[in-house]
Amino acid sequence: MAQPDLYPVPPEWAARAKVDAASYAQLHGRSLADPGSFWLEQARRLDWVKRPEIAGDWSFDEKDFHIQWFADGKLNAAANCIDRHLKERSDAVAIIWEPDEPGEEARSFTYRELHAEVCRFANVLKALGVAKGDRVTIYLPMIPEAAFAVLACARIGAIHSVVFGGFSPEALAGRIEDCDSKLVITADEGRRGGKRIALKANVDEAAARAPSLETVLVVRATGGEVTMSEGRDIWFDAVAQGVAADCPAEPMGAEDPLFILYTSGSTGKPKGVLHTTGGYLLWAAMTHDLAFDYVQGDVFWCAADIGWVTGHSYILYGPLANGATTLMYEGLPNWPDASRIWQIVDKHKVHTLFTAPTALRALMKDGDGPVRATDRSSLKLLGTVGEPINPEAWRWYHGVVGEGLCPIIDTWWQTETGGAMIAPLPGATDLKPGSATKPMPGVDPQIVDAEGQVLSGAAEGNLVIARSWPGQMRTVWGDHDRFFQTYFTTYPGKYFTGDGARRDGDGDYWITGRVDDVINVSGHRMGTAEVESALVAHPKVAEAAVVGMPHDVKGQGIYAYVTLNAGEEGGEALRDELRQWVRKEIGPIATPDALQFAPGLPKTRSGKIMRRILRKIAEGDVGSLGDTSTLAEPAVVGDLVANRVA
Ligand code: WT7
User: Fold this and answer.
1) Where is ATP bound in this sequence (predicted)?
2) Is 310 annotated as a binding residue?
3) 138: which of 110, 157, 214, 512 is 20 to 30 A away, CA to CA?
4) Which of 397, 383, 377, 321 is nearest to 352 (CA)?
5) What's this model's pTM, rounded to 2 decimal places?
6) Contact status, residue 43 vs residue 52, Cβ threshold 8 Å
7) Which atom of ligand 1 approaches the CA of 420 most closely?
8) Atom number in ligand 1 closest to CA 309
């Protein structure tokens, strides 16, 4: 039987959800027609120390470039995520924590307990001299302390910069230095899929390359052995014993920074994406509420890591601002076996599961058995994020995981956007496998051609956002000009997403993938320039060019072309050495999947590498390389094709 291409809103969802099709149209229409009053009304979702009277104040034009939301408002993000729920929901569970080891007991924290933990953590930070505006780097595994640390920073107005625990000491050092962070919070070790990750040892290595670092605060997680450096390293427990159990929440300006999160771009080092307090928090809360139709009491599980924006917005800030019960999982979805993720759903009666297509594809490989072996009757909604979802994975998620009963919420967004931008609302939007469907209230997407001409109706081109929204990033830390240049110069007056998209005749958006030199590996962004610079840092490498290639689980894999220094010989051993080298320089997610030794790279006469050709070869599409006559040395192409790594 042919599979349908359209999955209409189930009638019970249309009846029950907070937003149905008519109210979505009204909401979105009003958000664009009358943004001032719309956003001041939405701002009531938060608890303000001083309620704002102005909504958006922004211009994307070079002469007057600025972005502000609710600038006269004052609030504290942690108080919004904790304190305001104490009156009525202090005994409701805020966080459920599921450990890596299935046999170990899960832990849970009520809002009252979360308040105590976060206050204690905040007082520890204060005792170490952390003050409002200071940058604090958080390099922790997925343990409850990661949530406490983030919220503790927010509570005292320190700017957190969470670095994913899978990043190398080198990558960590770069991120500590870039924002001049004096304190790193880490743990002895992390655990994932039964393996230990030597986080503290990584920090020790990073510290040697990060002179700004003064203090390392160490949480005891596994009890694994670490070396403590006198005068620099401090056990969390030792300080925590002496601090008070209450800590006032610092009133912050809505435009005061909340956090920095580093992400890869098409050029240069990773950028420190800066989000501010009021607009970001409102965006995380509103999108969590609308896209997932969140009802208090439901268990919400975003199976991401806190090291990525998805974890920031949908494990912590969005759900907690809405008084939700959020599940935090330490381990991997398919460890110790392919059923684990579904067992966790059953164990904690999860209502909403939010994960990435790459995880689904990995799970699909084990067939339907491990899914069918579990109950999953608690599930009512399924979400996806990180990369375009292929229709096969969508249908498997919908039909097998959700037994055909759960709408699939495919959320398109970016680290820069703070939260979901294009996504269906379960009671309002008919679903199409592979389409992120319709814009959230306040989002004004456009499709433009290469010249910036706005295309109307059904069209394909580059995706831009024509106006500001509260969750928009405000700057690149330390480099405001780079912020402007990266996002607002390709199509002047508009935010350029870096993605291509198609809009169909129903006005539904289909994201086609990055149109810049960024590759999406397992839903994580990798800049080709970063991998290239790691490769050329190896003493035997003269030059490197990196492109994406199709990969059936990761979505995209990393394909590297490497030119060696004169006299060096490429072989299996060096190939492995270079792959390990990149892994060590950046982290496991950056490890090239394929590495080809190339005596020469295809360059124009002005010396620019023609990536288009390299991409085609990596994709195996060697029949349509296009015009190669403008190359300085057209002959290199034949060698590249002949030595393609399958
Ligand atoms: C890039 C942003 C959003 C948090 C996780 C990744 C791609 C993200 C989707 C989706 C198609 C998607 C885009 C985007 N992307 N979600 N639902 N459908 N593509 O955040 O690391 O900032 O990456 O991920 O290419 O630009 P990120």
Assistant:
1) 386-388, 410-415, 499, 514, 525
2) yes
3) 110
4) 383
5) 0.96
6) yes
7) 3
8) 4
